Amino acid sequence: MALGTPAYMAPEQAAADPHVDHRADIYATGILAYEMLTGQPPFTAPTAQGLLAAHITQVPEPVSARRPAVPAVLNGLLMRCLEKRPADRWQSAAELLGQLEAAATPSTGGLTPTGTTPAISSGTEQAIRQSHPVRVAVLFGVAAVLVIGLAFVLVRALGLPDWVLYGAVGLMAAGLPIIALTGHFERRRAEARPPVASFRRRREGCSTGSRGGRPSGAG
Question: What is the model's pTM?
Answer without folding.
Answer: 0.50
